[in-house]
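hi support,

uploading two proteins for the ticket. first:
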Amino acid sequence: MAGLRIKNVRSPDETRPFTDKGRAELLKLGDVTVGRAVFEPGWRWSKHVKPIAQTDQCESAHVGYCLSGKMRVRMKDGEEAEFGPGDVVTIAPGHDAWVVGEEECVFLDFAGLEHYAQRAATEEAPAVH
C-alpha cells in the first residue's frame, strides 16, 4: 500500500445493479476494493444475485459493517444468524442471505464485493458470488 487515497461512498467508481431490489457500489483504492451494498426490502441473494453469479450460493467471503436495516444469513450447513445496525460480521463462502423487514439494509464490505454481482467473466476477473 503506497501513499494516501481518499474516496467517498457518494461517488463510487462502479455501480452494479442486482436483477432487482438493490445495487453494489464499489470504491477502488489501489489493490483494495471497498463496497457499499444497498439491499432493498424483499431482496434475497438466491433471487436477485444468483441469476447474475450463476452459482448455487454466494461464494464470496465477506467482512463488513451494517449501517442500517437487517439481514439474515443461512450458511450451507444450515447455521443461521441475523445482523443489524452497528454489527460487524464475517461470512464464509457458501451462503444465502435476505433482507429482514421493510427497511433497506446498507452494508459496507471490506473483503467480498470486488467481483460481486459481476455480469460477465473477464480474463482479469471471473464472475463470482
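and the second one:
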Amino acid sequence: MRELTHFIGGKHVKGTSGRFTEGYQPMTGEIISKVPLASKAETRAAVENALAAQPAWAATNPQRRARVLMKFLELVARDNDKIADVIAREHGKTIIDAKGDIQRGIEVIEFCVGAPHLMKGEYTEGAGPGIDIYSLRQPLGVVAGITPFNFPAMIPMWKFGPAIACGNAFVLKPSERDVGAPLLFAELMIEAGLPPGILNVVNGDKEAVDALLDDGDVRAIGFVGSTAIAEYVYARGTANGKRVQCFGGAKNHMVIMPDADMDQAVDALIGAGYGSAGERCMAISVVVPVGEQTADELVKRLVPRVESLKIGPSTDASADFGPLVTAQALERVRGYVDLGIKEGATLAVDGRGFKMQGYENGFYLGGCLFDNVTKDMRIYKEEIFGPVLSIVRAKKYEEALALCNDHEYGNGVAIFTRDGDAARDFAARVQVGMVGVNVPIPVPLAYYTFGGWKRSVFGDLNQHGPDSIRFYTKTKTVTSRWPSGTKEGAEFSIPTMK
C-alpha cells in the first residue's frame, strides 16, 4: 500500500497531520493507498507558497504563460495511457472513459492557450477633451478549486487551466478518493516550465476545505460536487468576501416525442444513462416519453438493452461501465433501488444481484431501470448518481415540459424529436441551463461556458469558455487626461461629458 503526498512549492510533500484516509481500487475492493488529510497549517503552507510565487507569474507576459500550457498539453499526450490507468484504478471507470475524462480537460487547456487574446481590455481615445479611457484585465492573486471524484482529470483542468493562464496561483483540493491524476498534473506542469508554487495540490477533507474558505489570501473558490456542499461552500466563501462559483447536483431529463427516432433515442439513453456507472452530473437519469404508445415502445426496446449491458473491471476494454467508486456509493445506490420499489415504481430491470466473477469484492451494480415513476417519489426528486434510469410517463408535451421546469435542479436536459417546431419551442421555454436537441449529454465545447440553473449552481459565472476568464480576473478601468492648456480650477460635481 502506497502512502501518497501533497504537492506544495513544486515538490511532493509528506502529510504531517497524522490523519489519513484509505484509497480503494473499486474493481477489486482492495485498499491501494493511504491519502494524507491536510491540517489547517498544511493548507496554509500551500497558500503561502502560492502567494509568494504569484506576483512574478502575473508579471510574466500572457503569451509566455500560454506556452507553458502548450508544453503541458504535449506532456499529457505523452503520458495519456499512464494517467488513464491511474484514473481507472482509483475511480473505477473504464480506460476508454478515463481517456474521455482527460480529453475534455485537454480541450479547456487548449482554449486557455488563447488567453492572451481573451484578456485584452478596451480602449477609447478622445472620450472627452484630452481624455482617454481604457480597461485592463488583471489576475485575482491566489485562487483555489475543490473538485469531485467523478472527473479527477477533467474538472481540475477546467479549474486550474484558466486560472493559471490568467496569471493567478492555484491551490487544488481534489477529492480524496482519487488523487493520482491531480498529482500527476502538478508534476507535468512543473516539467512544462510552470514556476514552483503556482499549482499546489492539497489532499484533505472538510478541514482543508474550511481552511481555504476562511483564508483571507484566497481570493476566489471554484467548487463542483453535491448541492448541499455547494450551497455550504458558496455561503461560507462569499461571507468571507471571496468570489465563488459552485456547481451542484442534477436530475437531467430526456423527453422523447412520439415522432422521435426510437433506435437513436434508445442508443442515446444507454450511453447517457449508464456510462461511467451513472456517476456523471450530466447523466440522463429521467426519461420522459410523451404518450402511452411512445412509452410502451421505449420500454419494449430499452429493457433488453439494459439487461445486456456489459459490466466489467476498469481494465476491460469491452466493458460498458465498471464499478462504482466506493462501497458506500454502492450501498447508497442500492438503497435508492430498494426505496423505489417501496414507493411503488415498477423495477423493470434489477441489477442489484450482479456479481463480477473473479472480482466479488468490487463495487459493482448492474443496470437498473424503473418504469411508472411519479414526480412525488424520492427516486425522482433526488440525485441517485448510479446506473439507475427512471421512466416518467407524460400524456402530452406540455406535461413533459413542466416536469423539466418544475424540478429543483436545472443542469442539463434533452429532447429527441424530428419536429423542428417542437425542438425550437422546447429550447426556448425549458428552464434548464444546458439543452440538447437529439443530443443526450449537452456538454458545451470548451469555447462555450458550462453551467446549469436553479439549485444546480450557486454563483453568477460558469465554468470554462469566456466566463472562466471573467471569473479569474478583475477589471480595472483607467481614465487619463494629459492637459495641454491652462488650469481651469477645481470642479466639485461628478465628471461628465458636457
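thanks. also noticed: The domain at 252-437 is CATH 3.40.309.10 (Aldehyde Dehydrogenase; Chain A, domain 2).
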